[in-house]
Amino acid sequence: MSAPILLVEDDISIAIVITTALEDEGLDVVRCDTIEARDRFLAKDGFSLLLTDVKLKDGDGIETIGTVRDNYPELPIIILSAQNTLDTAVRATDSGAFEYFPKPFDLDELIRAVKQAIGTSASRPVPEQGDDGMALPLVGRSPPMQAVYRMITRVLRNDLTVLVLGESGTGKELVAEAIHQLGGRTSGPFVAVNTAAIPADLIESELFGHEKGAFTGAVNRHIGKFEQAHGGTLFLDEIGDMPMQAQTRLLRALQSGMILRVGGREEVPFDARIIAATNKDLLPMIEAGTFREDLYYRLNVVPIQLPPLRERGDDIAALARHFLAQAARDGLPGRALTEDAAQMLCRQPWRGNVRELKNFIFRLALLAREDVIDAKAVRAVLETDGYSQMPAIAPPGSGDTPERGDDLSGALGRWLAANSPEPGEIYARAMAAFERPLFTHMLDTTSGNQLRAAQMLGINRNTLRKRLVELDIDPEEFSPRGTG
What integer is the mean pLDDT of 155-184? Predict the structure, then answer.
């Protein structure tokens, strides 16, 4: 049997759960709840692993890790924390911890990490500390964001290519900025380029540069984004919109580490970390022949999936207050948000994700008449913006519901009057009622072809399949062979 594990945890219920789980795996656990007791145990006994919480009764577990590493350099360390911010995740990584787990954590994952740490019996090297005053670009403590933070910390000490995936407005560029700021290339430039915003005939020149006289109007040599990002990070946003010819040249550059300026004859080496991002599902594009499969695998070395705001409702209030503070720094009036106002914001769908929320909060800071923003003030701006779900829905027979018109708006009005959903649940109920006829119409249009239906809807094929199962819709009923 290996040497025992030292568990430092002052929450007795968590300590018992971890101890029981590890002992069930045949591991020996010694438990304590303070830094002072930890140091006393370490001094007299040999341990195979230190498993420690951050906030302890007598201090910060991370701040004292340096001393532990100095005295026991071969001891692997796993850090647990309820202080679930990107800052905590980065501090844990910078301390040289083998692994970091935000609470609540998956017990099976923790057990696997413990076994792996004991097997390696070596901590990660401690990197140089960055600027303590660095402003971290990401906000949120919800479980989906914890997964993002953990993935970010895993790529900070290497130059692996990262592909950031997520809907528009979820903050993909912020993830790229965080990796750059906190990683090993922070002293170099961060160069961002939106590949969808560059005309197809200019994208190669923008990315790789061009020589004087390469084409009409090329009166001087132009240094492209790859060379501009030398020593730093190149962020390629909206990579799914890149033309096929440019995809081919991008693939060659990534494979060789060299670029060829348009009109040039000699290849030029580049030294930049590549982070790409897209709001599209690239796999159907590969099947359709509009995105290169080999480029996809070259970019998708470390994927980071950003959750939409609707899946991180616990973060909306914190984000709203963060944006109010940002608005004040930008010269707008300083505002505070009441709890009922925050809850009203949490009930919104925010289809434009964090970007939409930010724009709304800035508008709210400008238009609110009081320094303390309450639910009434939020409702006023929501109604101005056309959020129809917030005003109370008139009951059937009230005479306020549209009775004419065969358009979608008229149908929606009649459905709302007939069903009278409660404020706060209108969006979910309306979408559930709307999806069935929408999906059946698209399947009928595509003769049951799910891939084509998903592409026309602009959603992930797996998402479509999941919703079809949940709505009990059989796509075979719409195929030609299913109608005979």
Answer: 92
Give the pLDDT score at 138.
82
> Distance (Å, rounded) from C-alpha 271 to C-alpha 257?
8
Based on C-alpha coordinates, what's the Rg of the chain? 27
pLDDT of residue 122: 43
- What is the per-residue DSSP string for 188-221? S-EEEEEGGGS-TTTHHHHHH-B-TTSSTT--S-
Q: Which of 134-148, 162-176, 236-250, 365-379 comes out lowest in average pLDDT?
A: 134-148
Task: Tell me which CATH code domain 422-482 carries.
Answer: 1.10.10.60
Tell me which of 200 and 341 has the higher pLDDT: 341
Residues 6+ apart with CB under 8 A from 47: 3, 4, 5, 6, 30, 41, 75
Q: Kindly report which listed range (18-32, 61-75, 352-366) carries the lowest average pLDDT score.
A: 61-75
Domain 5-120, CATH 3.40.640.10 — does that match? no
Determine whether 8 is exposed, middle or buried from the number of CB atoms within 10 Å of its CB (0-12, 13-18, 19+).
buried
Largest CA distance in the chain: 83
Exposed/middle/buried for 476, CB within 10 Å: 0-12, 13-18, 19+? exposed
Q: Going by C-beta distance under 8 Å and a sequence separation of 6 or more, which residues neighbour residue 241?
A: 195, 196, 278, 280
- Whether CATH 1.10.8.60 fits 311-384: yes
Greatest mean pLDDT among 122-136, 197-211, 413-427: 197-211
Strands 258-259 and 268-269: antiparallel
**For helices 450-457 and 426-445, what crossing angle results, to 10°?**
130
| Fold matches, 5-120 and 143-307 | yes
pLDDT at 86 exceeding the cut of 80 = no
- Domain residue spans of the chain: 5-120, 143-307, 311-384, 422-482
User: Whole-angstrom Cα distance, residue 350 to residue 379?
Assistant: 15
| Contact in structure between 275 and 233 (CB atoms under 8 Å) | yes
Interatomic CA distance for residues 51 and 71, integer angstroms = 16
CB atoms inside a 10 Å sphere around CB 143: 15
**241-279 pLDDT per residue, tens:** 998 988 999 999 999 999 988 888 888 999 999 999 999
Distance from C-alpha of 353 to C-alpha of 167, rounded to nearest angstrom:
8
> What span, in angstroms and rounded, lies between the C-alpha atoms of 327 and 42?
49
Q: CA 20, CA 479: separation in Å to the nearest integer?
A: 54
Q: What does the pLDDT average to over 27-48?
A: 89
User: For 143-307, which CATH class?
Assistant: alpha beta
